[in-house]
Amino acid sequence: MEISKTVTSLLVLSAALFGSACSKQAPPHPIATPVRVEAAQSLSDDALLRYSAQVVPQTQVDVAFRTDGYIDSIKLVPGVEARERLLQAGDAVTTGDVMARVQDEQYRDQLTKAEADLDKALAAARKADQDYQRARALNETQSITGPDFDAAQQEYATANASVKAARAQLDEANLKLEQTALIAPLNGIVQQRNIEIGTLVRNGTVGFVVANTRTVKVVFGVPDTVLGDVQLGSDLRIETASLPDRTFDGKVTEITPAADQRTRIFEVSVSVDNADGALRPGMIASLELDTSAVATQEVLVVPVNAMVEGPNDAFALFVVTKNSEGQEIASLRTVEAGQIMGNRVTVTGDIRSGDQVIVTGTAQVANNQLVKIVP
To answer: Can you tell me the distance from the alpha carbon of 155 to that of 160, in angstroms, rounded to the nearest whole number?
Structure first.
């Protein structure tokens, strides 16, 4: 009887659990992530010809100290109302100018000691020379023992070696004293000053950055598809938004032999005469290329903010496609980035003109995730 009741209870409990499980709803479908998209566009031939570039100095040098110590002085230059002020960024310097000095008391003391050591070594050398000459004369008449002659000869050699060492120390002391002055290595413009009076510097501390801007380089990048249209020595015309009424003539002077491994872009440098200093480092310039080789190829552009990091540190995009159920999903496409043009970048790879590229929401989606396009 008790066994029958137990079986009945188990059946009732099983039925209740089955009914409870049946009453539960199936898990809801994943929620689609809202995203904004823009279509990948084919770049027109005219737009492709124009490139953005940056102005950089022809030569730029970090002027570093070669001695340790505290900054004692910095070069004074004329300021407002003929008042002198410390040398600073934007000021011109000439080769050989003393830009700053380190306190030199200890180096002068070292020089004085080196001079005294040399005098002492010279005096010892003179005495050793006299003793040696006397010993040679006695040795010729066999009036001196062999060991005494050898000792005089050894003392003479040692004294002369001491003179050489003392001269070397004197030269080193003179050099260190000279190096307390930081000398401008070229004619140029100070780009940066890193020190103040009283600053403690070490050997290798960069005090100033000086650039030669009488000639500047305008640097830009091109993809391999147009590299053949850029030749060393070719003339290019440069424009800048900051000087809209002027154009500058330049000549291609350098093309990097290899592309950047990440961007696949070749860097091109155009040298431009800048005697009047109108072009300043950091300015953005623009130029046009006759890229006839690209005219027959379709080049796509997408917004820069659409680019994401793909597998193996490659560039990638999320393109909205549809899965087998007709739902919109984010598909990760690996691409190669090319030239940046304003807020867009040229791309090649697994992408076609008209593809809907996600531009807002890339941080919230993953490959094959459901998405919903919003205005």
So the answer is: 9
Q: What CA dihedral angle connects 157, 158, 164 and 169, to 10 degrees?
A: 180
Q: Which residues contact 78 (CB under 8 A, 6 or more apart)?
A: 84, 85
Chain center to CA of 124: 56
Looking only at the bridges linking them, the beta strands covering 98-102 and 69-74 are: antiparallel
Beta bridge partners of 90: none
pTM of the predicted structure, to 2 decimals: 0.61
Label residue 370 exposed, middle or buried (CB < 10 Å: 0-12, 13-18, 19+): middle
Strand, helix or coil for residue 161: helix
Cβ burial, residue 21 (10 Å; 0-12/13-18/19+): exposed
Note whether 281 and 211 are within 8 A (CB).
yes
* Residue type (1 letter), 16: A
Cβ-proximal residues to 64 (8 Å cutoff; 6+ apart), any chain: 204, 205, 206, 207
Q: What's the pLDDT tens digit per position in 147-175?
A: 988 999 999 999 999 999 999 999 999 99
